[in-house]
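new request in #modeling-help
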Amino acid sequence: MKSATTLSQPELRQVPAREGEAMHELMRNLYPICRSITGAGTVETLKRLQKIIPLSILTIPTGTKVFDWEIPKEWNIRAAWIRNSRGETIVDFKNSNLHVVNYSAPVKAMVSLDELRKHVHTLPEHPDWVPYRTSYYHEDWGFCMSHNQLKSLEDDTYEVWIDSSLEAGHLSYGELVLKGKSQEEVLISTHICHPSLCNDNLSGISVAAHLALHLQNQKRKYTYRFLFIPGTIGAITWLAVNELHVRRIKHGLIAALLGLDGAFTYKKSRIGDAEIDQVAEYVLTKDNRANKIKNFEPYGYDERQFCSPGFNLPVGCLTRTPYGEYPEYHTSADNLDLVDPHTLAESLRTFIHILELVEQNRYYLNLRPKCEPQLGRYGLYSSLGGENNVKEYQLALLWALNLSDGKHSLLDIAQSSSLDFSTIATAAAKLHHAGLLRELSAPEHAIERV
Amino acid sequence: MKSATTLSQPELRQVPAREGEAMHELMRNLYPICRSITGAGTVETLKRLQKIIPLSILTIPTGTKVFDWEIPKEWNIRAAWIRNSRGETIVDFKNSNLHVVNYSAPVKAMVSLDELRKHVHTLPEHPDWVPYRTSYYHEDWGFCMSHNQLKSLEDDTYEVWIDSSLEAGHLSYGELVLKGKSQEEVLISTHICHPSLCNDNLSGISVAAHLALHLQNQKRKYTYRFLFIPGTIGAITWLAVNELHVRRIKHGLIAALLGLDGAFTYKKSRIGDAEIDQVAEYVLTKDNRANKIKNFEPYGYDERQFCSPGFNLPVGCLTRTPYGEYPEYHTSADNLDLVDPHTLAESLRTFIHILELVEQNRYYLNLRPKCEPQLGRYGLYSSLGGENNVKEYQLALLWALNLSDGKHSLLDIAQSSSLDFSTIATAAAKLHHAGLLRELSAPEHAIERV
Amino acid sequence: MKSATTLSQPELRQVPAREGEAMHELMRNLYPICRSITGAGTVETLKRLQKIIPLSILTIPTGTKVFDWEIPKEWNIRAAWIRNSRGETIVDFKNSNLHVVNYSAPVKAMVSLDELRKHVHTLPEHPDWVPYRTSYYHEDWGFCMSHNQLKSLEDDTYEVWIDSSLEAGHLSYGELVLKGKSQEEVLISTHICHPSLCNDNLSGISVAAHLALHLQNQKRKYTYRFLFIPGTIGAITWLAVNELHVRRIKHGLIAALLGLDGAFTYKKSRIGDAEIDQVAEYVLTKDNRANKIKNFEPYGYDERQFCSPGFNLPVGCLTRTPYGEYPEYHTSADNLDLVDPHTLAESLRTFIHILELVEQNRYYLNLRPKCEPQLGRYGLYSSLGGENNVKEYQLALLWALNLSDGKHSLLDIAQSSSLDFSTIATAAAKLHHAGLLRELSAPEHAIERV
């Protein structure tokens, strides 16, 4: 594996266009589908992902209790429109699935303009855009349109028709496990419940899928678990099903909003100083761009569930510009033009960097803790003394020996020494090979850390 | 109870003049009395306070051992003057009790000007003011006068007469307990040993008395204990008498110097991060004025005793401009003109705000700690999704759920979330009512905190 | 003992020239000797030190295992030169022992200029200076000369001769113990392995020797252990021999590079907040000069061994300008002209200040922890009350009482109170004498600190 920290910003810019193009193509392929927290569109999305990665699709029946919630009725929609008294279709689901409030109950009715207005959502501040709205847990129906169109509607009687169904069925999600040497897991989770919106979250889906593709071909210390799940109810469902096994998760990242060319934003886990928090901050801070690190807050994506106090898992959230901080958020303007291949590739590379560092971060124990070992005997040290400067690599050997007491990871040592992580990791590998360090398995260092 | 944090600075300014007037009236009533650490003036002061609040007066006999001290002889004074050889009275206790060094032994003598000077205290830097001096623990006699008067004295033989007594008697103090739901106590203590000085400390006495009046009419979680005690020896006496029970004190405030219109100054308890320290800092910091927070130091008022290392109680000290930082401190210029009703009212309101927040601050336990509960089911959350901004109140619900793990108080949550305390408290109350939170009694969260 | 903190910078400047002169004289005496990590020159150095202080000389035979190392062969050298084909001696060990790579194996050979160059070390950036080089653990031979001289050498056949020996023998070091009241020790260690170099480290040797001389005449709480040892292998040897007893070391300082008139540089122990770290930082920071405090790093002098993770002793390193930060470092320009008597005296005084404060720093327990004691009864406090300002000394009494809870040393109290250490120490001594404080022996406060 290439070192997590050796790929500089200029190199990032040279990442082969191929990866970005492939992610954008996947996004174009999935864009037209009407996804939701349940239903055929979501299943279709998962099936198309199966053509790229060997995802399992899991289904949980309507009515199943999952903690404080239960799996809702499955929502499916075939068509929807509004027609005026002249029979002209003024809004049609065929043109954009955003036109229907997601999870709308079926309706077929004649309504006055006043009545219609009560069921129409617009964005007065962006009068040409159509908003995205949902009504998952309160049975209702509604349409979304541009504010300009709403203003242009005449006093008339309108026919509204939503050919949807809310019936017992299933909630579906995708799961992919890439086994590593250890049963300890890295969790990557992304939400799949949004319909024709690109940055939110076809970008997350595409990056997660290609991250899985990449990791398939790597030697892995950790086991990687990818979740492609509906937001909130999907995470709650997965946690309910896997309640007894979540302690395997040693590091986790939510992947979302990865297609806009803004600074990366890492939101820490509730723990606040979990290893994933330390690694993500280290990788993003080394980068020259003004990347942002935010403390945990209980609003956002599925870290809300993974970081609820009863689980408190080490799961952070990595996005570019966060939700609500770009005008196109949850509108029809979050379309294929908003997201470019190069940004997707850069997002993917950043995930890879972080995970490479997670893979390489170790705890070692110095097996010769009393005084320094005679490094020259192991071929690890220059033998001519008296020179003015010791090389970085030789310093790294000394740091790795001095702090490998079971309490400091390689990243801790890199940060204490202000040496590069890769320099420390290389030195530690040499010392390990020379028999001077022993790698600690997780329980040992974990016990010593408590 | 009105929320501790909803009364803004402009509202503070509109507090009914009635309270301020009543406190100033009490001050005028008590001003002429010659108080000391013992004696009739102190008892008379307590008796006048009994007309307002149902104070108990406790008396401890001279000679009683209290830790390293013992109760001194009781001091009483009837009259005192200095006369010149022409029989003119040049200084008279009748005009101001500050003219006699507090605790002066009786004396009747003819003295030269040189001899007199050895027993006269003045303030050269404020030549028109009379200083306040005491000699509690070293038997002596003395007078205080203006420096200008001292300078004008002719070489003459003076007759000095102090008609005082130092005899076995009692030390007296006042105590008032307002029972609350809990046996845990909030202590409010103020010193009553100063004679005709207004800011120090008729202001503290008046504010404490009216705080008791106010709390009498409130539902109280805590039991409130008010002490009206002579400085130092009074606090030591009370602690000696109550040594076995002081652990009931969960929060405490010394009330002093509350009549000058300067910034509030909160001096932290020796613990430094006690809940009362956190609350007082929060309330004062939210206020726009440049209020000051100081670390504990072992000089000052009776926090010196409450915070001695063998007790180390969570007792802070709330004043306006601190002792020694205004020129009138311990002089005849600390009179009725220095203190105005409005400032007293503002001081009282600030005590009330702090105590309201102490009352409202709770530890809750999330009873659905795994994932978020489905708030919509409890009528606690808007059901239409997709909007750009979540309201503060909804954020507060999520914060209260996420951090109610027995380790975070509502104030901790307010500070973590940067939401207003009252918003968090309201959200927590709703969650509690919905059965999602359980209130922890003190021992539970205390145990978890250790 | 004079208080550690009462000697100000101007006073430092007035330290009797005698001490500085004596140290410079010792340096001149030792300068010509060819020292190394073993051999006659090092023994001769120790013997000359014995004329000043009652040092023991200890010897460990070649081949002895000391942790990961073993005692090397003993190196001795009698003569060495390079001659050209005209029989002219162009470099001679007699002129400077730096001309031979320290630990060079014996050689007698005729070599071409090209071959000679492979064995010659120069400093192109300082073409008139001769570098200092060693080859302890890789058997080799070599010469050092000025770069200008190397450039002037003609194409010729040169005769090289090094009359040295590498044979079974001993490693020698000096040790001096000055017993104190306690078996707890302060360690002072300095390296003696460098040949004709003054600042590095005849300055450290001279200061350490005169520090021992000074301490011989003082009442000592602690036992002082001085080590005059070859760098690295000497410290490792001493630790191996004394492995079971190192826990007696409560404070330690490496003494090195003390002759250059730069700011003092204190490098903290690996522990980082050991008492010696706190004291050294306090003493150096009080001084007006821009003294530097550095965190531990595992490169430097013998703190590398004392602070290896298996020992982790509270040993810091006190130098002036650190190694590598002055151009003359490890060159022939580090000679008698570089170091002046006054700087040596100042360095000695700074060691004395630090150790005086270490001696005076105590933990006391307040024997009247409940409320303040009545200080007036003990003659410790002014009895006339009401004055505006309390004196520093009276504040110090209150601070010493309030924080003497077994968790705060006198230095902790000085730092909490912002009062001078000497003021706090004086107040505590008075309180101790009055029976109000009990001095805690080390185990008591240590146990309470854990």
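bot summary: Residues 1-10, 446-450 of chain A have pLDDT under 50 and may be disordered.
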